[in-house]
Amino acid sequence: MPSLRIALCQVDVVVGALDSNVDLLLSALDEANQADCDLAVFPELAICGYPPEDLVYKRAFVEDNRAALASVAAATADCAAIVGYVDADPNNPDVLLNAAAICANGEVKGVYFKQGLPNYDVFDEKRYFTPGTELPLWSIAGVTVGVTICEDMWIEDTPCVPMADGGAQMIVNINASPYHQDKIEQRNEILDALVAKTGTAFVYLNLVGAQDELVFDGASVVIDSSGKKVARAGQFVEHVHVADFQVAEPKEITLPVHEVTSRTSPSRSDLPPKLVPLLPPLHEIWEALVTGCRDYVYNNGFTDICFGLSGGIDSAVTAAIAADALGPRHVHAVMMPSRFSSDHSVSDSEVLCHNLGISSQIIPIEPAHQAFLEMLDPSFHGSEPGLTEENLQSRIRGVTLMALANFNRWLVLTTGNKSELAVGYSTLYGDTAGAFAVIKDAWKTQVYALAEDYNKRAGRLVIPEGIITKAPSAELRPDQRDDQSLPPYDKLDPLLKELVENNKTASELVADGYDLETTQRIARLVDIAEFKRRQSPLGTRITARAFGRDRRMPITNLYRGAAGRDEAPRRF
Amino acid sequence: MPSLRIALCQVDVVVGALDSNVDLLLSALDEANQADCDLAVFPELAICGYPPEDLVYKRAFVEDNRAALASVAAATADCAAIVGYVDADPNNPDVLLNAAAICANGEVKGVYFKQGLPNYDVFDEKRYFTPGTELPLWSIAGVTVGVTICEDMWIEDTPCVPMADGGAQMIVNINASPYHQDKIEQRNEILDALVAKTGTAFVYLNLVGAQDELVFDGASVVIDSSGKKVARAGQFVEHVHVADFQVAEPKEITLPVHEVTSRTSPSRSDLPPKLVPLLPPLHEIWEALVTGCRDYVYNNGFTDICFGLSGGIDSAVTAAIAADALGPRHVHAVMMPSRFSSDHSVSDSEVLCHNLGISSQIIPIEPAHQAFLEMLDPSFHGSEPGLTEENLQSRIRGVTLMALANFNRWLVLTTGNKSELAVGYSTLYGDTAGAFAVIKDAWKTQVYALAEDYNKRAGRLVIPEGIITKAPSAELRPDQRDDQSLPPYDKLDPLLKELVENNKTASELVADGYDLETTQRIARLVDIAEFKRRQSPLGTRITARAFGRDRRMPITNLYRGAAGRDEAPRRF
What we know:
Number of strands of chain A: 21
Shape of chain A: elongated
Distance between the termini of chain A: 80 Å
Oligomer: homodimer
């Protein structure tokens, strides 16, 4: 059986960074050539980054990305390269295609256009692209190869099957496949089923790194035609993973085949199979959050971050992730006690900062707190400000952090979790003020699990036990605790998952046995918090239904999904 | 020739308000029956409001909307009704269709499914719906009618043509067609071309009112088969407009026709044609902004708003729009002078409030300004805070407005214009803090034009001349003027239009003769302000390319579209 040597070029390209993306691709190509590879495989839209969104509406951007592709193709030699980019119909520049160029010996030998265009969840590809229809095959180092792109593998009428039936000995699928929990299992099921159905080897190549709220996990794999995994690259790490594997015998060829390279397998001894082990679930999520934070901060031109350290679990986990992502000396904790803060909040926080090796400063907010109360006193007409005063403290902290960030050119991280974001248990322009929300897609119960797993991996209580065991509290009034306003999180989170991730209504959940009053109240909180979420910063998506581009709810929304009439609009 | 009496039911339904939407439809249906109409026409997705976005992923929502449709159908008598709603495939509840029910005599006589699904600009209909394929015709009071939905009229292979060829004497097109400047001319061109091509009368029915950033202008029309407009409803007003018109003689029928009603035209004298005149362009924009503001405030459960009144043109125009939308006694101006505010800012503002009849209060921000400088002094290490202090003042105002809003249950309006939003000439959590940005899609030069037109229509200087003629300034440091940081607005706005609305790059514009340094600088400001825009409130869309769902740019974006290399990502 013929043997092929493939370089899985799992690179962290950045949206719009055409020049440096080309540099990255050329460097990986160089490694592939040094390793005597037959084929180097790069991610979907590797030239321009994924997803480029409305940038593709700029004609100059599409032209620049095509010029960038040409410069990568020009650098290829006898090792073929498969490279994703945006193409445009030469007869109509408004017709755009998600394309894979098959390059060798200094030129583009041919192009495949993506057929399955996802337009659900976080995807908007029908907004941008026209689907391809052709089924070309490619002859690379004597092996007949089918090239496909991402969704092509997932759709019912996948082009993989006719390509295999038409003579492909191997299918390459290049991806920018966003991570979420359990995604890797879904992918493996699809791949295993396709290998079984087609009897064809698969090369699955995925992007790595993060782009705004999406994070890409890499974990590229090669599966031989018997269904055996013969190579797997790491998760959330950028590298060129070289793998040898035996391709199945040639089949009868009934589709057009384009000659790419004619080199015959050089006499070389096969490399031993190298399968990087998969991370355990909580560690995988942690690395996703670290990668999302690091790429957002760096790719937006920052090196340092600050955040409000409250003594609670959310800001502690955020601090630990930021320290992993950027290095402890780039992480600046700010403690901003108010007249209602507890003493142990500050002492626990100091231990955490010491353990993480991050800097901290204390800025009591009393002077501004007092000044605002005096400024606003005539407008409060002698009434107790109540919730207004709680929000005021949170906003003073937001202003303080932003001033430090402006002055030092730091980026502000927010520390809210998905449970809070769901019910709007936060102050807009207060604790939601910041550029990036590190754990916004982690439920509160999951934040605890992440903290415990982190301590376990560290082999010591980096996050002090007092932070993990104290009752959750915003500390915005005396003796405040979250469970005075909300059900306990182990009850709340499952309910929120049903409402947010499974699109259930209160009526349906009550029929399923959930408590009527609680369910209707929480469902309503989720709906009316949409205006807060829309102005909150983005953060890394780690679930199959995250707040953000994944869940597009109207702000103005009078549907209650509950017994009784929907709320009527006001009419005057 | 047969005469038909039609009720153009231009209603302001609200997303999710199923019960009250039904009430509204029943009330309009009642009017239509009282007026002895043959047909009452309602907007696209009238049952659930438009656009329902991801609400349609809730199965219970789709079921509830179908039950609501059934209750409207049950109330129909001999006057047929065409009503938009969301349907689901009975064999697969995940397959959703944008549908029009044709109802009469207490039941749904049949359904048409939208074929053209827009998935560009503000539209995501391919995310939700499966296109219809059938071409049914309907016999209503002896007239053969084709029913279509919105985009069906705009697409190249419009179903209107085969319906007319197949025997339709009249085409009804129900819409939720979002407003932008010049949209009505585009619509008229399409309609005129279709009437000319098909020789068929058209009933164009549009939604009225606003939903989040979209505003719908109504302006429903009836055009007879000779191309003559025989009825037009008003813009931005909710009403039932009844029109009689002569339908062309029956044609040969080759498509299936479903019997809806068999009534013959009663003996009645025709109503005189009533065409509500179109508004002049600036007045039209004004009414769009008033409608957008009113529906956002009311439909989110508020009656009163507050805003920061600075003495500049933006907050003055915002105040006037809010007073028109909500009534002056529901509009609360807050003047928050700092140590750098000019005296005439306060005196001009007081005249404006008097002229508009709105309340005002003055809260000097010096106490909080001083408190923050003291709190932050150790962190500034003796340096001058500079831009940090400018942002600080703006954020203190944001906190003050939010405290008043929280305390009084007011909604905060922001006052920024499109030019500022484009270049990021604003302070996040400062002047961008608020729920709704009334003039966010109006260029600065357009804000001046709106102010002058408003004064002209009022016949007096409601907005004082001093506010219109003073040099634009943020007043955040001594003698600050916008033109110290930005080109004058009459130069800036055309450049921004090219960059933002026409997707041009700096390189292309320099080739077109724009100044190199200015163009590259402004283009870069537009790109890096994306993170601010993403956390800014929504506001009414009045152009064909608004910031918001209409323009989906990545925040992390290293493309510069300028000479030289793109910025490289940071790597450590």
